[in-house]
Amino acid sequence: MLKNEFKRDCASFHLKDRNVKHIRVSDAQKVYDVYDFKEEIGHGTFGIVVLAVEKSNTKQWAVKIVHKNIAGATKLIEVNREIQILKVVDHQNIIYLSKVYESPKKLYMVLELCKAELYKIYKHSKPLSEKVTRRVIYQLADAVSYLHKNDVVHRDIKMENILIADNPKNHNDEYFIKLTDFGLSIVKEGVGIQSLMKDYCGTVLYMPPEILQMKTYSELCDVWSIGIIMYMMLYGSNPFYNQNEEILMHNICFEEPKYITEGVSEQAIQLLKCILEKDPVQRMTASQIKEHPWISEKEGQSLSRGQNIVEMMKQFRFEMNSLTDRKSRGMSIICDGLELPSLSNTKLVKAGIKRSTTKVHKDK
């Protein structure tokens, strides 16, 4: 099953393979012969991230070690999907995969070493300045625009998945970011309505209304997540946060963020409103974010939404067709994400979200 998933994902890529070596070893000791493993620098449910030094040249790496037996089939599909995507993407703001080692019991992903996590910086220094926020959002939009142009949708963009690295071209750049964790990413297939997605996945705080409302959705789900990060950096809090899960989902779907003008410029707020647009037809694209005057700092430059009118009309037709399609046959949603809420009918009703015939299947 994993091999079939591998082949299907590979066949969908428009990008050229970077020829990243995937080395299969019979004994894990062969990996330890190449790298000197130091301290643990991260951990998760299915594995750890360890600082490793390449013995031949003393170069430092972050090695993500996944225990196959603990992870299980579903998680391994996510890991394999992440590996396949990282083997082909080539962007300065996307984490770099050097090699993959695979033993009978473990997977070793040799990744570039980063120095910090954006979320930890945010927690310590929130809110962040417009200058810092602008720098981060531009890079993030550039990386996401690159992914979308190549039919890759991340689907789990959040602060915890943005790392800070050294900029080889500018050592004074303190906010050179790397987008990471592509386990929930997907390569779009088909055109038109066939390219829309329906899997319910991601992290609720960063999820757009269309996913919570069980609609088919496009790559613009990533743009919404960029808006959440931008708002958090500027204001120091999530625009929809509530400890109560039902209220949180209701806020995302039906409430508008509070845009306080004190300490935040009008241009920044105007951009936020274009990104955190609940209707994906009207939502700005990742490419358009880069052209906004708040990002480009070109005063008087107007944002041309007219250039995107054809795309917007296509999105509108997609949404209308998907609504009709769902009414006629119902929709099966696969819950393959992390940190998902328990979406019972009761909770959705309390949140004001209608879910009639939709079935939710949880893969464990």
TrEMBL record:
<keyword id="KW-0418">Kinase</keyword>
<dbReference type="InterPro" id="IPR008271">
    <property type="entry name" value="Ser/Thr_kinase_AS"/>
</dbReference>
<dbReference type="InterPro" id="IPR011009">
    <property type="entry name" value="Kinase-like_dom_sf"/>
</dbReference>
<dbReference type="InterPro" id="IPR017441">
    <property type="entry name" value="Protein_kinase_ATP_BS"/>
</dbReference>
<dbReference type="InterPro" id="IPR000719">
    <property type="entry name" value="Prot_kinase_dom"/>
</dbReference>
<feature type="binding site">
    <location>
        <position position="64"/>
    </location>
    <ligand>
        <name>ATP</name>
    </ligand>
</feature>
<dbReference type="Pfam" id="PF00069">
    <property type="entry name" value="Pkinase"/>
</dbReference>
<keyword id="KW-0547">Nucleotide-binding</keyword>
<feature type="domain" description="Protein kinase">
    <location>
        <begin position="35"/>
        <end position="295"/>
    </location>
</feature>
<keyword id="KW-0808">Transferase</keyword>
<dbReference type="GO" id="GO:0005524">
    <property type="term" value="F:ATP binding"/>
</dbReference>
<comment type="similarity">
    <text>Belongs to the protein kinase superfamily.</text>
</comment>
<keyword id="KW-0723">Serine/threonine-protein kinase</keyword>
<dbReference type="GO" id="GO:0004674">
    <property type="term" value="F:protein serine/threonine kinase activity"/>
</dbReference>
<protein>
    <submittedName>
        <fullName>Serine/threonine-protein kinase 33-like isoform X2</fullName>
    </submittedName>
</protein>
<keyword id="KW-0067">ATP-binding</keyword>
